[in-house]
């Protein structure tokens, strides 16, 4: 029986190496896309929860960016830093440091990069959404083709459209996720 020559062995190793490099790149892209989808779905779920609680409790419920977990972070639209859902019984848009009002708390997105920062970025136009007892979103800007509402994009640092998800909130309280073809509009 004849064995395998060194040239044949090197050719097979080169082909396997090429296929592995393609597979690893594709796998990384898929895992980043799925992670971003999971994170935006977590925010979507908490938005829907805040709306449902506002209707159930018959009072305003706010979801806002929060790095502390007890109160809103002023003028911060980076939802990747975490958020809280709380009952706004005083109508101030703040918990006043009262952690008992917080219904849910989401910590900052996990770090998956060597630099210790999150791979998921957010550059939304709003730092808070308040739902009234009828489930309507209060005080949102006019941002989407002249219609009232807010848009919160989540993307990786490259802003690659295939790795971008957009959370759209309308003034009537509808919340949905889109995958844009280029940017969130």
Percent range for β-strand residues:
15-25%
Q: Low-confidence runs (pLDDT<50, min 5 residues)?
A: 113-118
The strand order across the widest sheet is 3-2-1-5-6
Shape, principal axes of CA atoms: elongated
CATH superfamily: minor pseudopilin epsh domain
Alpha carbon gyration radius: 22 Å
Distance between the termini: 67 Å
If classified by CATH, what would the architecture be? 3-Layer(bab) Sandwich
**CATH fold name:** minor pseudopilin epsh fold
The count of β-strands is 10
- Tally of contiguous helical segments: 1
Number of domains: 1
| Average pLDDT over all residues | 80
The share of residues in helices is: 25-40%
Largest sheet: 5 strands, antiparallel
- State the secondary-structure class: alpha+beta
Q: From N to C, what is the helix and strand string? A: HEEEEEEEEEE
Q: Give the class-level CATH name.
A: Alpha Beta
Please explain how this structure is put together:
There is one protein chain. This protein has 1 helix and 10 strands. The chain has 185 residues and is of the alpha+beta class. The protein has a single domain (6-178), classed as minor pseudopilin epsh fold. The strands form 2 sheets. The chain has a 5-stranded antiparallel β-sheet, covered by helices on one side. Strands 4, 7, 8, 9 and 10 form a 5-stranded antiparallel β-sheet that branches. The longest helix is centred in the first third of the chain and has 52 residues, at 6-57. The termini are far apart.
């Amino acid at each position: 029986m004849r064995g395998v020559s060194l040239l044949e062995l090197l050719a097979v190793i080169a082909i396997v190496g090429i296929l592995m490099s393609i597979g690893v790149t594709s796998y990384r892209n898929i895992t980043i896309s799925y992670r971003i989808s999971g994170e935006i779905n977590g925010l979507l779920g908490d938005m829907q929860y805040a709306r449902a609680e506002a209707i159930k409790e018959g009072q305003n419920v706010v979801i806002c960016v929060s790095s502390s977990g007890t109160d809103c972070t002023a003028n911060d639209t980076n939802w990747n830093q975490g958020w809280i859902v709380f009952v706004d019984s005083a109508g101030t848009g703040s918990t006043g440091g009262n952690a008992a009002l917080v219904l849910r708390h989401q910590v900052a997105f996990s770090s998956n990069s060597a630099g210790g920062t999150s791979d998921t970025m957010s550059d939304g136009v709003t730092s808070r959404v308040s739902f009234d007892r009828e489930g309507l979103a209060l005080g949102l800007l006019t941002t989407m083709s002249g219609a009232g509402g807010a848009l919160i994009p989540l993307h990786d640092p490259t802003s690659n459209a295939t790795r971008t998800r957009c959370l759209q909130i309308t003034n009537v309280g509808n919340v949905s996720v889109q995958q844009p073809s280029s940017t969130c509009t």
